[in-house]
UniProtKB/TrEMBL annotation:
<protein>
    <submittedName>
        <fullName>GntR family transcriptional regulator</fullName>
    </submittedName>
</protein>
<dbReference type="InterPro" id="IPR014464">
    <property type="entry name" value="CvfB_fam"/>
</dbReference>
<dbReference type="Pfam" id="PF13509">
    <property type="entry name" value="S1_2"/>
</dbReference>
<feature type="domain" description="Conserved virulence factor B first S1">
    <location>
        <begin position="73"/>
        <end position="129"/>
    </location>
</feature>
<dbReference type="InterPro" id="IPR012340">
    <property type="entry name" value="NA-bd_OB-fold"/>
</dbReference>
<dbReference type="InterPro" id="IPR040764">
    <property type="entry name" value="CvfB_WH"/>
</dbReference>
<feature type="domain" description="Conserved virulence factor B first S1">
    <location>
        <begin position="4"/>
        <end position="63"/>
    </location>
</feature>
<dbReference type="InterPro" id="IPR036388">
    <property type="entry name" value="WH-like_DNA-bd_sf"/>
</dbReference>
<comment type="similarity">
    <text>Belongs to the CvfB family.</text>
</comment>
<feature type="domain" description="Conserved virulence factor B-like winged helix">
    <location>
        <begin position="218"/>
        <end position="275"/>
    </location>
</feature>
<dbReference type="InterPro" id="IPR039566">
    <property type="entry name" value="CvfB_S1_st"/>
</dbReference>
<dbReference type="Pfam" id="PF17783">
    <property type="entry name" value="WHD_CvfB"/>
</dbReference>
Amino acid sequence: MASIGKYNTLPVVAITDKGAYLNANELGELLLPNRFVPEDCQIGSEIKVFIYADTADRIVATTEKPFAEVDQFASLKVSQVNKMGAFLDWGLPKDLLVPYNQQHSEMEVGKYYLVRIFLDLKTDRLVASSKLDKFIDIWPADYQKWDKVTLTIASKTDLGFKAIINDLHWGLLYDNEIFKPLRTGKKITGYIKQVREDGRIDLSLTRPGEGKVKDFSEKLLAHIAEHDGFSPLHDKSDPELIKRILGVSKKTFKATVGNLMKNGKITIEANGIRLKDS
């Protein structure tokens, strides 16, 4: 079954001077305008398209890519506000509506807001909401320590950043464990540090010990390679300099350097580190 607000791979059933018609099952045959039709398209071809309602409220297909799809969170910019609500730029010709009753606080033109995109079952229209709590799972999270998860960064707090875990649960990243710039709406990989007895979840951007070293090794090697095989960073470098350039703590940096040296990937010199084959 084809889904509104999501990507669908649909077969071509007819080609006309207007474009290709795709079989979307219960949604009928959808026109893919000529400007989106691949050059080698023919009847029977399958095309990956996004389905949504256009400015005339017709269900249409497009190969244009929105910034997010239904049931996802995204940070989007308000392009206009009128009596219906706020309209967000989400990368398609028709902006995404946030009705007034779906606004956590009154939205302003030009500002970004973290929202959840959903299909209004009463109207079959795609809309968004900044009332995020109602989309968070009420059931206790079933995560294991150091599970790898996808995080959507939400609001800043006194302790750090709230983040949405796998589009399902709230978690917290603590300031003293953040070594890279974060912004609302950014999607990053994280790890479950612990699930507390009260159900609250602590997060980390890196795994401990050996896992952390493995995670960072490729980034450090890429950094050295990008600088002609040599980096002036070393064990006496300022921790803040390491954090600013590489986005990790000095402890992680030193552990990774030691691991790469043992594995014959780099050599340590008085004023920096060098790739072994440079």
